[in-house]
Amino acid sequence: MKRTLLALAVVSLVACKKNEDANAKTSTSVGDVVSGAKTLNNLSASMDDIEKKMKELKTTAPATNDELKSILPTTALGLARTEIRVGDSSMMGLASADAKYSDNADKYVEISIVDGAGEAGSGMLAMLMMALKAESEKTDAEGYEKTTNFNNVRASISEKKNGEIMESEIQYLVKDRYAVKIEGEGYTLDQLKAVMSEINTSSLK
User: Fold this and answer.
1) What's the rounded Cα separation, in Å, for the pair 70 and 54?
2) Partner residues linked to 7 by β-bridges
3) Is residue 133 pLDDT above 70, yes or no?
4) Which residue of 87, 157, 173, 200 is surrounded by the most CB atoms within 10 Å?
């Protein structure tokens, strides 16, 4: 049953992605089948580990606001921190923190972190873990997005051109518990990855 539900989830995900693409072909290509099968195999092999991690995190106390706040750097790529927020997702049962960094002109970086501990957090983390296991890629005239091994971690990455402005994003997991997202405007993906080492995740449990 678990494998069947997983297969249906992957099929639904593929179907949704095709509906979003206005130029999608009406027939399924061999490449689509191979990609879907590879995704299903990756997810199936990981389901037991994901379920085990979920059970562990459900009974784990989430990090405090101060703990999450302390890992956010005061600068990112040389930009000063202009805003910091903690606890915005507490109404949903999630422990979170995020910060913005800006030159007050045409460049900014935003770092967000969500703890996967607790009932709500473990559910969120499971979905992200499955998404990162998938083999997906989309390319259009503006740029690309895909899941891949990036800077020594499994990540969802994107790089797009909005007019003359480059927009990049990296989303990944730290210690199989914390979901981290880094967004940047005015930076390439290669430039943005330097922020990953500026985040002080060593103190996280």
Assistant:
1) 25
2) none
3) yes
4) 157
Give pLDDT tens digits for 159-179. Answer: 999 888 999 999 999 999 999
Question: What is the Cα–Cα distance from 192 to 169, expressed in whole angstroms?
Answer: 8
Complete DSSP assignment for the chain:
-HHHHHHHHHHHHHHHHHHH-TT--SS--HHHHHHHHHHHHHHHHHHHHHHHHHHHHHTSPPPPHHHHHHTS-SEETTEEEEEEEE-TTGGGT--EEEEEEE-SSS-EEEEEEEE--HHHHHHHHHHHHHHHHS--EEE-SSEEEEEEEETTEEEEEEEEEETTEEEEEEEEEETTTEEEEEEEES--HHHHGGGGGTS-GGG--
Which are the contacts of 87, defined by CB distance < 8 A and separation ≥ 6?
A: 65, 95, 96, 97
Distance of alpha carbon 88 from alpha carbon 91, whole angstroms: 8
Whether the pLDDT of residue 204 is over 90: the answer is no
